[in-house]
Protein backbone atom coordinates (compact mmCIF):
# COMPACT_ATOMS: atom_id res chain seq x y z
CA UNK A 1 0.00 0.00 0.00
CA UNK A 2 1.35 3.42 -0.90
CA UNK A 3 2.32 5.77 1.91
CA UNK A 4 2.78 9.49 2.33
CA UNK A 5 6.36 10.55 1.59
CA UNK A 6 6.33 13.21 4.28
CA UNK A 7 7.52 13.43 7.88
CA UNK A 8 7.17 12.26 10.63
CA UNK A 9 9.43 9.25 10.23
CA UNK A 10 7.97 5.89 11.34
CA UNK A 11 10.75 4.02 13.20
CA UNK A 12 8.85 0.74 12.82
CA UNK A 13 9.06 0.68 9.01
CA UNK A 14 10.68 -2.43 7.52
CA UNK A 15 13.92 -0.70 6.46
CA UNK A 16 14.38 0.81 9.92
CA UNK A 17 14.05 -2.71 11.30
CA UNK A 18 16.65 -4.01 8.81
CA UNK A 19 19.03 -1.19 9.83
CA UNK A 20 18.61 -2.14 13.51
CA UNK A 21 19.32 -5.80 12.67
CA UNK A 22 15.80 -6.90 13.67
CA UNK A 23 15.13 -8.27 10.17
CA UNK A 24 17.63 -9.89 7.78
CA UNK A 25 18.69 -8.59 4.39
CA UNK A 26 20.79 -9.87 1.51
CA UNK A 27 23.51 -7.22 1.78
CA UNK A 28 25.46 -5.93 -1.23
CA UNK A 29 27.35 -3.02 0.37
CA UNK A 30 27.53 -0.95 3.52
CA UNK A 31 29.44 2.14 4.67
CA UNK A 32 28.93 4.91 7.23
CA UNK A 33 26.11 6.46 5.19
CA UNK A 34 24.27 3.66 3.42
CA UNK A 35 23.16 0.06 3.36
CA UNK A 36 22.48 -1.64 0.00
CA UNK A 37 20.66 -4.96 -0.29
CA UNK A 38 18.72 -7.06 -2.78
CA UNK A 39 15.00 -6.33 -3.11
CA UNK A 40 12.90 -9.13 -1.63
CA UNK A 41 10.57 -9.14 -4.67
CA UNK A 42 12.87 -8.31 -7.61
CA UNK A 43 11.34 -6.62 -10.67
CA UNK A 44 14.46 -7.20 -12.80
CA UNK A 45 17.29 -9.76 -12.83
CA UNK A 46 19.25 -7.31 -10.67
CA UNK A 47 17.15 -5.23 -8.28
CA UNK A 48 19.03 -3.63 -5.40
CA UNK A 49 17.89 -1.00 -2.91
CA UNK A 50 20.23 1.66 -1.52
CA UNK A 51 19.07 3.32 1.69
CA UNK A 52 20.61 5.97 3.92
CA UNK A 53 21.34 4.86 7.47
CA UNK A 54 19.79 8.06 8.83
CA UNK A 55 15.98 8.29 9.19
CA UNK A 56 14.65 10.12 6.13
CA UNK A 57 11.12 9.35 4.90
CA UNK A 58 11.59 10.01 1.20
CA UNK A 59 13.67 11.80 -1.41
CA UNK A 60 11.65 14.92 -0.57
CA UNK A 61 12.73 14.72 3.09
CA UNK A 62 16.32 13.70 2.27
CA UNK A 63 16.94 16.39 -0.34
CA UNK A 64 15.61 19.09 2.00
CA UNK A 65 16.99 17.99 5.35
CA UNK A 66 20.09 15.80 4.90
CA UNK A 67 23.54 17.32 5.38
CA UNK A 68 25.89 17.94 2.47
CA UNK A 69 28.01 15.02 3.72
CA UNK A 70 24.99 12.69 3.81
CA UNK A 71 23.89 13.70 0.31
CA UNK A 72 27.39 13.31 -1.10
CA UNK A 73 27.92 10.04 0.76
CA UNK A 74 24.63 8.62 -0.48
CA UNK A 75 25.12 9.69 -4.10
CA UNK A 76 28.63 8.31 -4.27
CA UNK A 77 27.48 5.07 -2.66
CA UNK A 78 24.79 4.52 -5.31
CA UNK A 79 27.49 4.73 -7.97
CA UNK A 80 29.75 2.44 -5.95
CA UNK A 81 26.98 -0.17 -5.66
CA UNK A 82 26.43 -0.05 -9.43
CA UNK A 83 30.16 -0.69 -9.91
CA UNK A 84 30.07 -3.59 -7.42
CA UNK A 85 27.14 -5.06 -9.35
CA UNK A 86 29.14 -4.60 -12.58
CA UNK A 87 26.22 -2.93 -14.33
CA UNK A 88 28.05 0.25 -15.43
CA UNK A 89 28.90 -1.29 -18.79
CA UNK A 90 25.51 -2.65 -19.85
CA UNK A 91 23.63 0.09 -18.00
CA UNK A 92 20.97 0.38 -15.36
CA UNK A 93 17.99 2.44 -14.15
CA UNK A 94 17.58 4.35 -10.90
CA UNK A 95 14.17 5.00 -9.35
CA UNK A 96 12.95 6.60 -6.16
CA UNK A 97 9.21 6.58 -5.48
CA UNK A 98 7.86 9.45 -3.38
CA UNK A 99 4.49 9.43 -1.66
CA UNK A 100 1.13 8.07 -2.66
CA UNK A 101 1.04 8.97 -6.35
CA UNK A 102 4.71 8.02 -6.63
CA UNK A 103 3.82 4.53 -5.42
CA UNK A 104 6.11 4.60 -2.37
CA UNK A 105 5.41 1.64 -0.09
CA UNK A 106 8.23 1.81 2.46
CA UNK A 107 8.52 5.18 4.25
CA UNK A 108 12.33 5.21 4.45
CA UNK A 109 14.09 6.93 1.53
CA UNK A 110 15.54 4.44 -0.94
CA UNK A 111 16.81 4.28 -4.49
CA UNK A 112 16.09 1.23 -6.60
CA UNK A 113 18.84 0.00 -8.97
CA UNK A 114 17.38 -2.10 -11.78
CA UNK A 115 19.62 -3.96 -14.23
CA UNK A 116 20.32 -7.27 -15.95
CA UNK A 117 18.16 -6.86 -19.04
CA UNK A 118 16.98 -4.17 -21.46
CA UNK A 119 14.54 -2.29 -19.26
CA UNK A 120 12.29 -0.89 -21.96
CA UNK A 121 10.24 2.30 -21.77
CA UNK A 122 10.66 4.60 -18.80
CA UNK A 123 7.08 4.16 -17.54
CA UNK A 124 4.21 1.87 -18.51
CA UNK A 125 1.58 3.54 -20.72
P1 LIG B 1 8.78 1.44 -2.93
O1 LIG B 1 7.49 1.10 -3.58
O2 LIG B 1 9.64 2.32 -3.76
O3 LIG B 1 8.57 1.95 -1.51
O4 LIG B 1 9.59 0.07 -2.84
C1 LIG B 1 9.72 -0.71 -1.68
C2 LIG B 1 10.48 -1.94 -2.07
O5 LIG B 1 10.91 -2.58 -0.89
C3 LIG B 1 9.68 -2.97 -2.87
O6 LIG B 1 10.33 -3.20 -4.13
C4 LIG B 1 9.70 -4.21 -1.98
O7 LIG B 1 9.77 -5.42 -2.70
C5 LIG B 1 10.93 -3.98 -1.12
N1 LIG B 1 10.93 -4.63 0.18
C6 LIG B 1 9.95 -4.65 1.11
N2 LIG B 1 10.32 -5.35 2.20
C7 LIG B 1 11.59 -5.77 1.95
C8 LIG B 1 12.55 -6.54 2.68
N3 LIG B 1 12.26 -7.03 3.91
N4 LIG B 1 13.76 -6.79 2.13
C9 LIG B 1 14.05 -6.30 0.89
N5 LIG B 1 13.19 -5.57 0.15
C10 LIG B 1 11.98 -5.31 0.67
UniProtKB/TrEMBL annotation:
Motif placement: Histidine triad motif: 108-112
Domain HIT stretches: 14-124
Superkingdom of origin organism: Bacteria
PROSITE patterns: HIT_1, HIT_2
InterPro entries, A to Z: Histidine_triad_CS, Histidine_triad_HIT, HIT-like, HIT-like_sf
GO molecular function: catalytic activity
Signal peptide region: none
Active-site residues from the entry: 110 (tele-amp-histidine intermediate)
Listed PANTHER family: HISTIDINE TRIAD HIT PROTEIN (PTHR23089)
Name by which UniProt lists this protein: Histidine triad nucleotide-binding protein
Native species: Gluconacetobacter entanii
Taxonomic lineage: Bacteria, Pseudomonadati, Pseudomonadota, Alphaproteobacteria, Acetobacterales
